[in-house]
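OP here, attaching both records as promised.
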Amino acid sequence: MLYREFEHGGTNSIEDEYMLDLYRINDYYWFEDKNGKFKAIIENVLPTGHLVLKTLENEVRRRYSFKEVAFIDE
């Protein structure tokens, strides 16, 4: 069904399904970037592939490219 929609130019359902299936999508978890550890929630994945996180502490939105941020288990 998603493929049929894609054939006709629709991508919204595919994007919605992708967001629902992301690992650790619906809660705040620990991440680490070059500046240290922080707790954040995945807010979006942009068409460019950038990951958008919203921090718990001050609700700042941060955008990351591939390998600029990592999940950490705490």
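Record two, same layout:
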Amino acid sequence: MKALRTNPLIAKLFIFTAFFLGFSAVLNIWMGTEYIRLSNEYHSLKNGTKPEGENQGAEIERKWLVERDKIPYDLEKKADKFEITQTYLNYSPEIRVRNISDQQYIMAIKTGLTKEQGLTRDERQYKITKDEYEHLLSKQEGSTIHKTRYQLKVDDYIYAFDFFHEQLDGLIYLEIEFPNEEEANSFETPNWFGRDVTNDINYKNQKLAQNGIPADYTPKD
């Protein structure tokens, strides 16, 4: 996968072929893995249907640092809780796999990350099997991220609180996804929210996996 980082043409070819064939097919070609669902997914795409578990489109998301004692909700009682292990296979394009509470395994590719703009990115996700997930871990780059996520519906939005562990222990942030950029930019921030780090590339998960907690970390705005 090193060629994806060093050769932009190869990276573009990866994304282009992935769009048409599906990521299981492309990873089979690029990484030498064998997926038992490859044939079904390929024929589903060829016939114009959507493979099971596929999710794609723009991710419009804002992110804030928060202080534990300022959160006005009893997350253990009120929120859904997930233990997430997140591992990066490649940074550019961003490819990562997630183990969610040992119940669900997701592979995702994201593009559009820049130093100036972090609100909107293109994202494509696939459900994968546990065996596929474990095989892909051998392609790991950087540190694995371990975090506990609490999800809580507040008014019209889902608040996702991430409490990081191990090398990122102490870092807490809140993410909210929006249906469009206009709504995201007009969202009225409650006074207990901390610093808005939506456009700070150092607080993206892939940068945390590479570099750890940023030197300027402080949850206060």
